[in-house]
Specification:
It is a single chain. By secondary structure, the protein is mainly β. The protein has one domain: Methanol Dehydrogenase, Chain A (8 Propeller), CATH 2.140.10.10. It contains three helices and 39 strands. Strands 1-33-34-35-36 form a five-stranded mixed β-sheet, with no helix packed on it. Strands 7, 8, 9, 10 and 11 form a five-stranded antiparallel β-sheet that branches. Strands 28, 29, 30, 31 and 32 form a five-stranded antiparallel β-sheet that branches. The two termini are 37 Å apart.
């Protein structure tokens, strides 16, 4: 990755760095902000790293013994101007206005970005990404993005880019002539001001198709990898015309460096012939050490007639794992996997791409062979584990993949899983959060443990905090009114350590729930979004 101070650095340096990752404790609403924050954890991207594992292994403050309602709870609520659909980001010990701050960044559907002092709640800066005379986009006839569309996807930060560090963020807007705009902005993280490179309009052509900003929303999180910003695009309620765009831009110049439409032949309307889009319920494209990029696509067109290399003849990849190789200023599909029942599942709107992709750490199988695996699940409730060196392509008679757990997540998946200490944590709509143990590169056929709580739509999007391999806590968000933050022992999800409904007199209530919310855990605090705020939890004074 380009950012040497990202969380991923801390992940690989965890043994040496552990003593410096974390803070002595949180401040209350009435306490003065810390003026000299400790060097700590940076959360610069969706689910902490480009593999999207959802694990922070540098949390030395929060432990299973102190995350309990008597010692842990809501510290404050950071109010903003719209829905918070993007995951908050966090930087430790950032100099803003000549003083050091721990900073949480919040992007809203009001097309605003805020930088808050994480210890005091003070606003350090706030900017609007709307151009002169522009408004946020109306819902474009789709109830999925109401009442307005501004910033939906999780931004990404490179702390080493530009003079002070740069945040990259996509914002949608509408001008006075009802023209729609999708722009990539590059913001100085200490001021919120645009850098010299930004903003730029997203515009691309691939084959005979041209990207039209009106018909797309950037739902999936941004990916920063090897100096490139990857954007991926979803439709408004499957409203034609749309395709499956992945567009890469150079992080220094913001110039387009590659574009790919994985729905080249799609036309007309209807699930069987349109798309597929890439949305992953807010999950982000993942990247491996060789700079390959992975996405899950939604329902849509797929040609069961394959070319001589085994790829769909028309270039349409509905309901697929897609592996993308950047090379020579272009993007190309280098491998894929599509389930043998794709046509029927697409006709029923059974997205594989309702869930996000996660890459697993390299694992050794029972024969001593190193396996590089990826996992994904969608609306059909099955978990698919693929070999990243040979995804399996398509066969009309069965799925040629590493492992499949059929129907283990009934209700369907609208989330990206998390990984910690040889366990994969998954949730389905209307079901419990489940832990599948991993042995010899294979997931257990049934859950090793699960929560008693049943999570309503869209289920929950878990993350894990731990101090190396110790003190593992799984954090989960419940989309209710009021919303509920849960904490579970990572080794046994039946052991609930805390939930925000336990405290007396509604002390820890923090707002109305929202879809696809990922908790962010860093330096003794937990940040969780609502429809108009981000709540901050931590050890009570």
């Amino acid at each position: 990755m380009a950012n040497g101070r990202t969380w991923l650095f801390c992940y690989f340096a965890v043994i040496a760095f552990l003593d410096g990752c974390g803070q002595s404790g949180p401040a209350s609403d009435t306490q003065a902000p810390q003026t000299t924050p400790q060097v700590g954890t940076d959360v610069t991207t969706y689910k902490y790293d480009v593999m999207r594992t959802g694990q922070n292994l540098t949390e030395s403050v929060l432990t299973p013994s102190n995350v309990a309602f008597k010692t842990f709870g809501k510290l404050r609520n950071l109010m903003v101007d719209g829905l918070v659909d993007a995951q908050p980001l966090y930087l430790a010990n950032l100099t803003v206005g000549s003083a050091a701050h721990n900073v949480v960044f919040v992007a809203t559907e009001g097309a605003s970005v805020y930088a808050f002092d994480a210890d005091s709640g003070a606003i350090l800066w706030q900017v609007s990404l709307l151009g002169a005379g522009e408004t946020t986009s109306e819902s474009v006839g789709c109830a999925q993005g109401t009442p307005k569309i501004g910033i939906t996807s999780t931004p990404v930060i490179d702390r080493t880019a530009g003079e002070h560090g740069t945040m990259f963020v996509i914002a949608m807007s509408e001008d006075a002539l009802s023209n729609y705009h999708q722009r990539l902005h590059a913001l100085d993280i200490t001021t919120g001001l645009e850098t010299a490179a930004g903003p730029v309009e997203i515009a691309a052509t691939f084959g005979t198709t041209t990207f039209d900003p009106e018909y797309y929303t950037e739902r999936a999180a941004l990916l920063l990898n090897n100096g490139a910003i990857y954007t991926s695009w979803a439709s408004h309620c499957d409203a034609a015309p749309y395709g499956g765009w992945i567009i890469a831009l150079d992080e220094s110049s913001l110039a387009i460096t590659g574009a790919l439409n994985v729905a080249q032949g799609a036309s007309g309307s209807g699930f069987s012939s349109q798309g597929p889009s890439i949305w992953m319920s807010g999950g982000g494209p993942a990247a491996d050490s060789a700079n390959n990029v992975y996405v899950l696509t939604a329902n849509g067109r797929f040609e069961t007639a394959l070319d001589t290399a085994g790829f769909p003849a028309g270039g349409d990849y509905g309901n697929s794992f897609v592996k993308i190789a950047p090379s020579g200023g272009s993007l190309a599909v280098s491998d894929y996997f599509t389930m043998f029942g794709e046509i029927a599942e697409s006709a029923e709107d059974d997205d594989l791409g309702s869930g996000g992709v996660m890459l697993l750490p390299d694992m050794t199988d029972a024969n001593g062979t190193v396996r590089r695996l990826a996992v994904g699940a969608g609306k059909d409730g099955s978990v698919y584990v693929v070999n990243r060196d040979d995804l399996g392509k398509f066969s009309s008679v069965g799925n040629n993949i590493w492992q499949q757990l059929s129907g283990v997540l009934p209700g369907g998946v609208y989330s990206t899983p998390a990984y910690f200490n040889r366990s994969v944590y998954y949730s389905a709509t209307g079901g419990s959060l489940k832990a599948f143990s991993v042995t010899d590169g294979l997931l257990s056929s049934a859950a090793a443990s699960q929560t008693s709580t049943q999570f309503i739509y869209p289920g929950t999007l878990p993350v894990v905090s731990a101090n190396g391999a110790a003190n593992g806590i799984v954090w989960a968000y419940e989309n209710t009114s009021p919303a509920v933050l849960h904490a579970y022992a990572a080794a046994n999800l039946a052991n609930e350590l805390y939930n925000s409904g336990q405290a007396p007199n509604g002390r820890d209530e923090f707002g109305v729930g929202n879809r696809f919310i990922v908790p962010v855990v860093a330096d003794g605090k937990v940040f969780v979004a609502t429809t108009n705020s981000v709540a901050v939890f931590g050890l009570l004074p």
